[in-house]
TrEMBL record:
SUPFAM superfamilies: RmlC-like cupins
UniProt-listed Pfam families: Cupin_2
Protein's recorded name: Cupin type-2 domain-containing protein
CDD domains per UniProt: cupin_QDO_N_C (cd02215)
Organism this protein belongs to: Streptantibioticus cattleyicolor (strain ATCC 35852 / DSM 46488 / JCM 4925 / NBRC 14057 / NRRL 8057) (Streptomyces cattleya)
Amino acid sequence: MTFEYATRYRSASRIPAEPGRPYFVEKGEGDRAHLFGDLITIYAGGEQTENTFNFFTCEGPKGDIIPAHLHPETYEVFYVTQGAVRLFVEDTAGEQREKLLTAGDFGFVPKNCPHAYRMERHHTQVVGVAAGPGGTFERFFENLGAPTGELGLPSEPVVPAPEKFRTVPGRYDVRFLPDHRWRTG
């Protein structure tokens, strides 16, 4: 049996609104949002972990690069469970690297390092974890994108209006870099 909770973000969620409560989430039943062509499912967030980490999945089709961005106070992990993702990363000294990650591969992005990614195969799935002194950023997905009750990918990409990107940095430790250029492939 799974319980539903009301949270400050949603009228119904399988994730309790406060820390200190054990809980279980059945496959796909976390808090879901569509952003670009992807489905993001949050299983644990700042509310449950006292802002120490989050745990989410991102599923999507082969597609365009996700815009360059960084997290000034948050470390991010990419673990590919299905398909392939090309991860672009720049360290704090300005050295850029890219790596094709396939099922079972892991990528780590330290705080304050520009990064972006692109799904390279249809129906790719990535497990993400973010942690750091800046808290967590998982609610960014549904605030920039669109909360959804659907289990699948969006039928049409959810592309936020340009002005919506400007509202994100102060609230979610995500800073977009619209003029950033990758010198790698």
